Amino acid sequence: MNTPFHINKTLNNNAVVAKDASSRELILIGKGIGFGKVKGDVIEADDVDKLYILTSEKEQQQYVSLVRSLEESFIELLNDVITHIEKRMQTKLNEHIHVALTDHMAFAVKRLEQGMDIRNPFLVETQTLYPKEYTVAEEVIEEINQALGIHLPDGEIGFVALHIHSAVTNRSLSDINQHSRLINKLAELIEESLEIKLDRKSINYLRLVRHLRHTIERVEAGEKVDKQEKLAKVLKEEYPLCYNLAWKLIKVMQNTLNKPIPEAEAVYLTMHLQRLT
Q: Which residues form the PRD domain (predicted)?
């Protein structure tokens, strides 16, 4: 896009709200592009480092509010972080991440300064479910720590990983969190029913979590799995405790997701449960 932009509103020295040739409102980021500028002034495309469309008016208002309330250096840092995420994930991110991640990290830094620590109960599950996002999130937290001279708790890695996954998959953070809570609830039910303590870092637990994730994704997508009637009969006879528990877990998933789950899923789940015992 090489056509010039016309300023609608100056946010700070390095950020403005402007219109392009199609009269779309954009947020433009660039060194000094807002300095001394007023409404109607022209900005050449070559002076723009980053351009965000933010088609949702609500999100644009939220981002404008964030830019005005936070230090310019912090906004610049988060813009660099998001650029890094996009390069590492090798895909276009949902632009909501500019609002969501900037807001989250500003709050996380504030909590740290106030001596508050919010525990992340799904850290191991997040690392297991979204390994690539988790690795990139580790890099993000390290970059922020070095830039600000702070040490954010490891739990923030998990939170950032979920923001990345949300932006990559165009799924809401609430849906993703619901799945994490569901998997954690199922794990607790397994411990209670089998009277065991799950080793959250064991290979069998990691396999179980990945299986539960794929089961949830298949159910959400409406995918069918082949019936396994003969295998189901064998498992029911050989491992009745795990087979019955598998059905209990299926019922919990059905109630939470509000969708039917094929009977064959109980067969595959039984085999994962048997490994745990």
A: 69-174, 175-277
The answer to whether 163 and 98 are in contact (CB under 8 A) is no
Low-confidence ranges of the chain (pLDDT < 70): 1-2, 54
User: What would the two tokens of residue 244 be?
Assistant: 């019955």
Separation between Cα atoms, residue 26 and residue 55, nearest integer Å: 8
Alpha helices in 118-172 (DSSP H): 123-129, 131-148, 155-169
Helices (H), 28-172: 57-69, 72-89, 96-113, 123-129, 131-148, 155-169
C-alpha distance across the termini of the chain, in Å: 60
> Which pair of tokens denotes residue 101?
């991640």
Structure pTM?
0.83
| Token couple for 111 | 């909590």
Q: Which of these, 74, 94, 69, lies nearest to 170 by C-alpha position?
A: 94
Q: What is the pLDDT of residue 59?
A: 81
Within 10 A of 241 (CB to CB), how many other CB atoms are there?
A: 13
pLDDT for 45 equals 87
123 and 157 Cβ atoms separated by less than 8 Å: yes
Tokens at residue 18, please? 């402007």
- Centroid of chain to Cα 1: 30
> Which pLDDT score, from 0 to 100, does residue 1 have?
53
Report the C-alpha dihedral over residues 112, 117, 119, 125, rounded to 10 degrees.
Answer: 20
What element of type H or E holds 17? strand 15-19
